[in-house]
Design brief:
It is globular, with a radius of gyration of 14 Å. 0% of the residues lie in helices and 50% in strands. With 114 residues, it is an all-beta fold. The strands form two sheets. It has a six-stranded antiparallel β-barrel with strand order 3-4-5-8-7-6. The chain has a two-stranded antiparallel sheet with strand order 1-2.
Length: 114
């Protein structure tokens, strides 16, 4: 296991990451009614997870239901198709705020739960 410059443990990513621009809707995995969806864009996908940018600040450690609402027009290589899922349950592994002049957005690293 590697460490970050701050000395925190980190893992080396496994698997190929493929760029995409699939539109998604994310919501917390919860039995509570009325949980609103948050629209986002999936910017890359791999066999084990994906990277999504959304307007909502989902907490690391939380679980999300993610549904693809618009697929990119590009077909993935056959070897990578197992990594692209139209609907999935995932754990938020990390979150990073992306600041801009108009609004804050959040990049989240998601790990697929099988």
């Amino acid at each position: 296991m590697m460490t970050t410059p701050a000395g925190k443990p980190t893992r080396i990513r496994r698997g190929m990451r493929l760029p995409t621009e699939a539109e998604v809707k994310c919501r917390p995995y919860s039995s509570i009614r009325g949980t609103a969806d948050s629209r986002g864009v999936m910017l890359n996908v791999s066999e084990n997870g994906s990277y999504v940018v959304t307007r909502r600040a989902f907490e690391p450690g939380s679980f999300l239901v993610v549904r693809t609402t618009r697929y990119p027009h590009v077909r993935f290589p056959e070897a990578a198709e197992g990594g692209f899922r139209s609907i999935f349950l995932a754990e938020v592994k990390w979150r990073k705020e992306i600041k801009s002049d108009t609004a804050s957005r959040y990049g989240v690293g998601l790990k697929y739960l099988d």
